[in-house]
Amino acid sequence: MSMNRAEMKTIWVVIAAIILFGLLQLGHDWLEDLFISINRYAVHSIMEALAFAICFALLILGWMVFVPTLCRQRLMTAALFTAIGFLGLLHALSGSGMPLHDPIIGDTPSLLLNWISQWVGALGLLVVFSLDNPIVRPRARIYAIISVLCIVTVVSLLVFQTNHWNQSVIDALAPFQQSSTLLLYAAAISIILYRHRIERPESMLTIVQALIWLFFAKLEESLGTGPESVQALIGDVFKLAGYYCLLKGIYLVLIEEPYRRQKKTEARINYLAYHDELTALPNRRLFADRVRAEMARAQHNRSRFALLWLDVDRFKTINDSLGHAFGDRLLVAVAERLCKFSEKPENVFRLGGDEFTVLLAGIRGEKEAEEAAQRLVELFEQPIKVGPSSFHITSSVGMALFPDDGNSLDLLLQNADTAMYSAKETRNSWKRYETKMNLKAKEKLLLENDLRIALELGQFHLAYQPLIDLEHETLVGAEALLRWSHPQRGEIPPSEFIPLCEENGFILPLGEWVLRNACFQMKSWQDNGYPMIILSVNLSIRQFRQHDLDARIAKVLEETGLDPQWLELEITESIMADVAYATEMLERLKKLGLRISIDDFGTGYSSLYYLKRFPIDKLKIDRSFVNDVLTDRNDAAIVSGISAMARNLNLTVTAEGVESEGQVAFLKELKCQEAQGFFFSRPVSPEKFLALFDMDKGKTDSKETAG
């Protein structure tokens, strides 16, 4: 076990005190000859005066310094050594030849005052460092000093007003006083070392050193015959060494260390005021200061600089699927990569969330800034390592130049942010700010505001697209699709408003509205005698991350009366990122009796292992593979592979985006069970879907008649 410097010093103090004590005993006769011509009472009085001065210094530490942060230990130590100082001073003044000495009574009052002073000191130090150390009110100083003065006055009166002392009792009491004082010092040392057994700071070890010197001071004094003995004088020297170490230790414990902690805290607060706690990058406040300074420099030098505003694509999905702890680690990794990208790491900032900025100072022209923006996008082509795994992420970067795209901090920031959101429309790209982008940003804001009231005003409605059994060419299901009829803008495609809903969290109430209304509609069709078919409803990743999702769905089914076996939930492959949570939630949903399908299969976190582990009923092949299945050999191979794999796993396969008879024939050849797309029907209203029921019934009747 390694020891720090203060611990080694304490050990050397113990060794030095023992050696010095032993040498003094061996050289006792020599010391007697050395001090024979010296007035020992005068030396003793000088020593007591010095001790009183140190006690007074301890009083000042507790009375005047850092009063707002006054703590119990500092106050009690100040009060304790006020009492010790006055008792020691009275002890010195009542010695032989001193003003308070009474020849009739003798040296007994001086001896008793010395004993009481030592008892009070040893017991007081034990108590002080055994208690907790809370902050106390400054006015407590008044109560403490008044109490000390009263106690010292009472003790002094009792000692000096007594006219006769039984010397035999005093002599018998001496060994007890000596042994008890030594035991109290030893106990105080033990308590301090035990309370700081895990970490022993220098300040506390300095107090231990003081107690060691006081211990040997009392031990040396106990070997003498009175104040005039050589042992008493040596004891006074030891006591002064102890008082000095105590003064130093009290200063370290109660003044310097709190001051250091305060300065460290202030430095930490100042650092956090200008830096991001997670990534240690400069934050928005320091960013604003740096940009203002750069603007002043650019105006003076008639130069230009660029702001690159970077946002991690799909970061909310990463947070929702893998958890915020993983998201934080990913942001730290992104920050480290950005610092390596910039020639000046101090010009990389985190503005909040997954948004970062890079300040390019003193650029020579637009081309240099554009090349830097492209390099910044390409920076994330290599996977980012987070823990033992590597992850591919992309970024969207917006660029604004000073003074071309803004001559003030707010305008420059706003335009860089606008350019970044424009780049997000395509993702993994960069865009420079253009004036027309503000119009798009304004439209997006207005659209987001309209979203909030669209549900209340009944502007949303559902359309249903049929799912067809390819082998029997019969209707087997309907997928509920959300549509928005805006009073001014007309029909707004889901590709415009669904990402907004995901971004602002509105997808949660909206998704529940879709589920409830679709279930009501399917139950209505069933009650009216239409064939039993599967209702397919899309579930967003944010809905899936709701820990009470199964309870919410169970409540909807109970309210609508729809049997769970006719409800199929469509989820995306992104749920596979958090395997443990996805497995648990899917099993809870399956217990309700629902069907589970993976939508847009092949475009996300595809894994055969996950398909085997998850309780899934169906795979829906993404339309991007089906579109060119007749002309692209790769797409044909992918669709063929997915179909074969699904059959081996006893999963149903549905092909999305079927638009031609040739695609239908190809899918039938692969034994793909189901399909949906414009070839069969576009999404239609509930009323028009009834015609599909009738058409399907007609086909069935024709086949039965032909058979």
TrEMBL record:
Q: Which InterPro entries match?
A: Biofilm_reg_signaling, EAL_dom, EAL_sf, GGDEF_dom, MASE3, Nucleotide_cyclase, Rev_trsase/Diguanyl_cyclase
Task: Return the SMART domains for the record.
Answer: EAL, GGDEF
Q: Is-annotated flag, keyword Transmembrane helix?
A: yes
The cross-references to Pfam families, in alphabetical order and at most eight, read: EAL, GGDEF, MASE3
Q: Which Gene3D superfamilies match?
A: 3.30.70.270, EAL domain
EAL domain residues:
444-697
Q: Where are the transmembrane segments?
A: 50-71, 78-100, 112-130, 142-160
- UniProtKB keywords: Membrane, Transmembrane, Transmembrane helix
Residue ranges annotated for the GGDEF domain, each copy included: 303-435
| Annotated protein name in UniProt | EAL domain-containing protein
